[in-house]
Structures are given as C-alpha cells and as structure tokens.
Amino acid sequence: MEKKNILFVCMGNICRSPSAEAVFSEIVKSKGLSQAFEIDSAGTLAYHVGEPADKRMKLHAVKRDYNLTSISRKFNPDIDFEHFDIIIGMDNENIGTLKNMAKNQEDLDKIKKMTDFSKEWSYSEIPDPYYGGEEGFELVLDLLEDSCQGLLEKLS
To answer: Among this protein's residues, is 15 annotated catalytic?
Structure first.
C-alpha cells in the first residue's frame, strides 16, 4: 500500500478532528499499518490554536483507550492541500469552508466527509459535542469508530 497522508478537519480542532486522528491512528496501529499513513488534524478556524483537545473529549476518549495528544492548529490551504491526499471534514459547514479554500479541482477532489465512510450509522454529519452533554462526546466516538473503520476498508 502506498503511504497515504490523511487530514481530519473540524471547526476548532479540539473535539471531533483530534478524536478522528486518534481513532484512525489506533485502528491502523492495531492492523500493523501505522507506517502506511501520516495522520493529522486541523480546524477551519483559529479559535483554539496551540491548545490541547477539549478536556471532556479527552476524558471520553481515554475510556475507550484513545489518547488525544494533538495540539490545535488552523488548516493552511497553501500547505495542507499540497501535502495531504485526503482531507476529511466532520460536517457540512467544514466541507463548505474547505471547498471555499480550494484553489482547483485537484484540491476539491481531496475533500471528503467523515460520514461518507460510515457503515453502521446513518448520520449525515459528525455532530459538534462542544455545547452538549456527555452523550454527545460518546456519540462522536461511536460515529468516528464506525467511519474510521469504513475509511480504512475503502483505502485497503
């Protein structure tokens, strides 16, 4: 398998995209495929640049043996479209923002939505858990586990 560079993107890069990065990293590690991927995450906005993942998201992730270690950064269209093979947005707003930053068709072709890889759940987006309760963080992890498994199968 040729090495694939995967970037997960949400709005602030403190809940959904760092979780997707951790979940996908753990799945590929469990399959012995870590060397086949470079995995990162970013946000469409710079609200939380330099911050670690949301404490509540980290707490729920740890319960499932995921370690959210990434530090928030803003998506950089000049670098990220060039470097990454697949850029995966968490919701329609993220997808729209990424498409508006695309410079050409090649950039547009790299943009995918996380739930497009879902196999078991029928959600059209990964909902933002930031303003909700504990169940929102658990739902995000459920959806990401399903979608990340589907993503790996699609790429294999």
So the answer is: no
Structure tokens at 74: 């803003």
The residue to which tokens 């470079």 are assigned: 38
Report how far residue 117's alpha carbon sits from residue 115's, in angstroms, rounded to the nearest whole number. 5
CA angle at 123 for the pair 119 and 128, rounded to the nearest 5°: 120
Annotated catalytic residue, options 16, 40, 54, 146: 16
CA distance 15 to 70: 11
- Is there a catalytic annotation at residue 16? yes
Contact yes or no for 31/64 (Cβ under 8 A) = no
The CATH number of whichever domain residue 114 belongs to comes to 3.40.50.2300
Residue-wise pLDDT for 16-67, tens only, equals 999 999 999 999 999 999 999 999 999 999 889 999 999 999 999 999 999 9
pLDDT at 133: 86
Residue in 10, 15, 80, 148 annotated catalytic:
10
Q: Which domain holds residue 27?
A: 4-155
**What is the total count of domains within the chain?**
1
pLDDT > 80? residue 1: no
Considering the candidates 54, 80, 91, 128, report the single residue annotated as catalytic. Answer: 128
Whether 128 is catalytic is: yes
